[in-house]
Amino acid sequence: MSDTVQSRISPELKADAEKVLAEMGLKTSDAIRLFLQQCVNVGGLPFRPTTSQPNALTAAAMKDTRSGENLSSYDSFGDLLEEIDE
Fold first, then answer.
1. Could you read off the pLDDT of 4-48 as tens digits, one per residue?
2. Domain-by-domain residue ranges, the chain?
3. 3, 28, 44, 57 — which has fewest CB within 10 A?
4. Is 50:43 a contact under the CB 8 Å cutoff?
C-alpha cells in the first residue's frame, strides 16, 4: 500500500528540477522518496537551508556601493548609455 503526496509548485521550478533529475536518471517521484527517506534517516532536513548568495562580482559591487568606492555618476541617462557603448 502507498500514500499520495501532492504539492503545488511553479511550472518553471518543476521543469528545471526535472531536467536536473533526468540527468541523474531519476524521476520527480524518486527524488521525493529519497528526500523523505533522508529526512527520516537524519532526523530533520537532509541539507542546511540557505538563501541565494550573490556571485563574487556582485558581492564586490555591493561592498563598493556600501563603502562609496568605485562609483560613477552621470548627468543623464544618455551619458550613461554613451559610456556603456564605448
1. 999 999 999 999 999 999 999 999 999 999 999 999 999 999 999
2. 1-50, 56-85
3. 3
4. no
| Sign of the dihedral defined by the CA atoms of residues 17, 19, 25, 28, in that order | positive
Global confidence as pTM: 0.57
Please work out, in degrees rounded to the nearest 5, the angle formed at the alpha carbon of residue 26 by the alpha carbons of 24 and 28: 130
What is the C-alpha to C-alpha distance for residues 42 and 34, in angstroms, rounded to an integer?
12
Distance CA 75, CA 53 (A): 33
Fold (CATH) for 1-50? Arc Repressor Mutant (1.10.1220)
**Residues listed for the chain:** 86
